[in-house]
Amino acid sequence: MPVTNSDHWEFLCLLGGRALAYRNRMNIATPIHAKSRIGHTACPHDCPSTCALEVDITEDGRIGRIRGANDHSYTSGVICAKVARYAERLYHPDRLMHPLRRTGAKGAGQWQQISWEDALDEIAEAFVKAEAKDGSEAIWPYFYAGTMGWVQRDSIERLRHAKRYSGFFSSICTNPAWTGFTMATGMLRGPDPREMARTDCVVIWGTNAVATQVNVMTHAIKSRKERGAKIVVIDIYDNPTMKQADMALIVRPGTDAALACATMHIAFRDGYADRDYMAKYADDPAGLEAHLKAKTPEWAAAITGLSVEEIEALAKLVGTTKKTFFRLGYGFTRQRNGAVAMHAAASVATVLGSWQYEGGGAFHSNSDIFRMDNAELTGKSMKDADIRMIDQSQIGRALTGDAVALRHRGPVTAMLLQNTNPVNIAPEQRLVKRGFARDDLFVAVHEQFMTETAEMADIVIPATMFVEHDDIYRAGGQNHILLGPKLVEPPPTVRTNLFVIEELAKRLGVADRPGFGFTAREMVDRVLAASGLPDYDHFLEHKWFDRQPAFEEAHYLNGFAHPDGKFHFRPDWVNGAAPNKPPASLGALGPYAELPPFPDQVDVIEVADRDHPFRLATSPARSFLNSSFSETKTSRQKEGRPEVMINPVDAEANGVSNGDLVRIGNVRGDLRIHARITTEVKPGVLIAEGLWPNKAHIDGEGINVLTGADPVAPYGGAAVHDNKVWLRKDVTKEIA
């Protein structure tokens, strides 16, 4: 299904100066009722933007339209269409409303409605039995970012530590990116992201912002409109963000570091490098320059698939534009060399001295600026370093008895899951499903919908949504802490995450331990007080708190955050600091010994070969957010069906026509999927957009059958865009 002009109406409006039309188009949802009030909150989803929201609330206590807050300087009145339609999700007829007990085989869909008391009693009883048989580490509470609210997301950690349950290494999403950036700068912060609206060039590297971070485009296009700024997009296919670019560079997956190295080579060669800046702020510019002598445009062209002319043009543009803002995303780091790629891309800004200027420098995340204290919330005082830590990305291996994944200790026999759907989103899906199918594994899932993980549970309990409970949020892609107060009453039979944790703590005998016994609002206040921030009532009045540091700190003009005050061209890949560094019990992960001493292309990726001639990336879709929103009718209609994008050259060579079923596979498995023939992907590259439910696929197996759980060096992460696969036309009949 080709992308049509109507898909890009929002940005065409903005390009034409019709910002109001763009804003209205982005916020179509249920109509505003004549008698309503406006509630203020924050988007809870796993997105760096953490948009400030205005919610229309009707007289009968229902939400109507949701839109971006006009008076919020980053959201600037614009939010993504899927969140604007949130009423469709809140009032979905398939929303879970009652606790359920499995009555048939796992996954058979046979359930009995039970009371909340019975559900919680049975979960606690199963945990007690598992601990009595195999020790406390047999229980593994498992969660992630279905909500980014601190209280509702992270309280499960307090129960974990109080009970000495198995630890949770949250590796799957951010680690390669965060590790690569902090190895360079020493801290996860950067220029004020609002400076994208005051720059002369924005380089959007490795993120399809139109689909995943719409506010990046809002500010970048403002700079283009008001200042004539150029927008450069670097990615692996011609996605909607590419279509907004003045310079669009499509690289082969996993080759971003080569492009960064060639750009820096040209900067040194042609005099764009700011030697005075590097002499003051960088650790070894002379060593870097010598290292880059061989990293010519010709060298990079052979690796990236770009032409020499494209590489030269990029280097000249950023080299002659002092105010260049490098907006570095997550997508290009979800390769096995992702940390190296992030470090190399951030290094370009330092070679050019871009950090010195407003609208210049490199930005990935502001996570380290907020200085929020979650010690009581997560029960850190009760954490035991001797308790094993299991990698979230390796859930399939852990649940099927892999000794390394289990740290050579006993099995996991009981789980509580909140805010995540690993049967759909975790790599090595066949292992994950096999693990959840174990008869000796007790699983409780607290969810909003009957996800494919919930379908494999023994007990399913219904959860609130973000407008139905109190919480506090902090952004990653911007600079605000935002309050998410309860705006409407939840259905009477659903409960918050915090309620479940508190009730289990009572039944498991730890309710008297530190951090338990508080309401969500009280816990928000306790976090704020511990962090030296204004209280809940202040946030209720003012809605958010700007934590952006001063220009000199944000741009590292007082020195970078390493002890020596330098930007590190030479990272310490094994001992360097990182926001989510594995504990000592895990140590460095992946092929860390192969990581280069300076920015470089390192092929620890799954390089295409004769038996697997294609590179597959599992890129995000515009209407889904991980597995969220895939349940709503409008999002599913907009996305159509699961498809794999194939270049016409590859399609012809394999006898594939548009709409044909093809089979793609690798050592981890294979699946059938419909082909979409398009020039938006380069030859040798396949793109499967959107994390569709497994059951939406022809044979009930989704794209994560093909993704691996081996950790990204040096500190872990899942390389979900880094897959070598084979492809062939499928000649079997499609099952209706």
From TrEMBL:
SUPFAM superfamilies membership: ADC-like, Formate dehydrogenase/DMSO reductase, domains 1-3
Secretion signal span: none
Record's keyword terms, sorted: Iron, Iron-sulfur, Metal-binding
Domain called 4Fe-4S Mo/W bis-MGD-type: residue spans: 36-94
Domain of life of the native organism: Bacteria
Family of the protein in this entry: Belongs to the prokaryotic molybdopterin-containing oxidoreductase family.
Protein name: Molybdopterin oxidoreductase family protein
Origin species: Rhizobium mesosinicum
